[in-house]
């Protein structure tokens, strides 16, 4: 059974093995979290070169096959090669070194799995079926994207600002809690007026 957790990846060393579409999606999500990512593959789809350019200080493409040396001193590993045998070798090496490894398409070899996510700034909603039905996760994710549109990023920022102001008042704890609960019923426009 999986324990849900959010990991701080800012400036952490992450290694991704693989140069295809699945590896690309993993890399893109990891780079958005501020990690320093080395991507190792003999070949890369074109999108990787755009990713390397966009995240030039955080992303490096290395044209090579899997070698244990690349795993040295890293925080997290993703094994997304087209070879099940290579992915298994990567997983075993990570286990020996006590490094968390995600092996795409092999739940039993994974130390962690990545849920489907809806991100609206600091609002992060994740959905997981523990690998039983990725398509169901995607379906629920799409429903959540409709329910929580991009405006929720701004909405959450206003809630955070109001919370800070309320906490600095001389009101009792109970009064503060009441105000903070009540403002959840406000629309984005009403929050802006409240500010």
TrEMBL record:
The keyword Zinc does not apply. It holds the Pfam family Sirohm_synth_M. The keyword Oxidoreductase applies. GO terms for biological process: siroheme biosynthetic process. Its EC number is 1.3.1.76. Pathway: Porphyrin-containing compound metabolism; siroheme biosynthesis; sirohydrochlorin from precorrin-2: step 1/1. GO terms for molecular function: ferrochelatase activity; precorrin-2 dehydrogenase activity. InterPro entries: Met8-like, NAD(P)-bd_dom_sf, SirC_C, Sirohaem_synthase_central, Sirohaem_synthase_N. It is an enzyme of class 1 (oxidoreductase). Residues 120-146 form the Siroheme synthase central domain. It comes from the Bacteria. It catalyses: precorrin-2 + NAD(+) = sirohydrochlorin + NADH + 2 H(+). Keywords: NAD, Oxidoreductase, Porphyrin biosynthesis. This is precorrin-2 dehydrogenase.
């Amino acid at each position: 059974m999986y324990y849900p957790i959010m990991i701080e990846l800012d400036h952490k060393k992450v290694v991704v093995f693989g140069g295809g579409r699945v590896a690309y999606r993993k890399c893109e999500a990891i780079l958005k979290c501020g990690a320093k990512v080395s991507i190792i593959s003999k070949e890369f789809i074109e999108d990787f070169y755009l990713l390397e350019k966009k995240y030039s200080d955080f992303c490096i493409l290395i044209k090579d096959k899997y070698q244990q040396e690349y795993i040295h001193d890293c925080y997290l590993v993703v094994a997304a090669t087209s070879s099940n045998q290579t992915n298994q070798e990567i997983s075993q090496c990570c286990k020996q070194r006590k490094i968390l490894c995600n092996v795409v398409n092999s739940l039993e070899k994974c130390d962690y799995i990545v849920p489907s996510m809806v991100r609206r700034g600091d609002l992060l909603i994740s959905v997981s079926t523990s690998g039983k039905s990725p398509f169901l996760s995607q379906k629920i994710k799409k429903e959540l994207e409709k329910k929580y549109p991009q405006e929720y990023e701004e909405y959450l920022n206003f809630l955070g600002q109001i919370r800070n102001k309320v906490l600095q008042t001389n009101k009792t704890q109970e009064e503060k809690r009441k105000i903070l609960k009540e403002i959840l019923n406000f629309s984005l426009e009403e929050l802006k007026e409240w500010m």
